[in-house]
Amino acid sequence: MGDILIDNFETKTSCPICQADLIIKWQRDNIPYFGDIMYTTANCGCCSYRFADTMILASKEPSCCELPIRTLADLDARVIRSTSGTILIEELGIMVEPGPISESYITNAEGVLLRIRSVVESTIRWSEDDPKKQEIGRSLLKKIDEIIENPENASTRITLAIKDPLGNSTIISAAATSRPLTDEEKETLKTGMIILDTEKDQIIHDISEEAGPIGKQE
After folding, report:
1. Which CATH architecture describes the domain 60-193?
2. 179 pairs with which residues across the strands?
3. Nearest Cα to 26, choosing from 4, 6, 9?
């Protein structure tokens, strides 16, 4: 494309699940705080694979954002998790890594805990034949509920961390801190991103003139 900037276009690649042709829609936008961003969406017609992400176009350094959760106000901190972000709560033994069908989302710290709680509940249901796993799960649910109800009185003090090798995740709070990732962290973290093969993938439809706002993703 040379120096021509196309705001809205589509590319063709292969579905990472079933290898069928997959159309990725790209739409450029500008929003406060983030500046230039790119929405990307894909939905495979042959299998259940779906993909949606909001990529920050500005150059960012690989980073780790951390938020000690000590008060109810900390639970309201804005959390932006990109598809390349790994969520860590070491005190609870929790690590949520990005995968092929990861989606980005914007929530708050309480919302992150509720997402984790839902996964733990599912794990308990799947472990009907393993009383030990169920016991561990119920203990974890109790700790999460204590933190959501009142972090000041919770038996476990936690720190919410997001490590992002692409620098597109962050925590917005005066209590949050950010640092560059170490070389070791950058080598071991997953990105969850679709990497386009420039020899194969191509723009198949410039939709700059006809594109409208992309609706909220489920």
Report:
1. Sandwich (2.60)
2. 64
3. 9
Nearest CA to 14 out of 53, 46, 52 is that of 46
Per domain, the residue ranges of the chain are 1-59+194-218, 60-193
At residue 5, the pLDDT reads 52
Dihedral of the CA atoms 25, 28, 32, 34 (nearest 10)? 80
Whether 199 has a pLDDT exceeding 50, the answer reads: no
Q: pTM to 2 decimals?
A: 0.70
The per-residue pLDDT for range 148-157, each reduced to its tens digit, is 999 999 999 9
HSE (side-chain half, CA atoms, 13 Å) at 85: 27
Our CA dihedral for 100, 101, 106, 112, rounded to 10 degrees, sits at: -90
Tens of pLDDT, residues 180-198: 999 999 989 887 654 333 3
Question: What HEC string does 81-137 produce?
Answer: ECCCCEEEEHHHCEEECCCCCCCCEEEEHHHHHHHHHHHHHHHHHHCCCCHHHHHHH
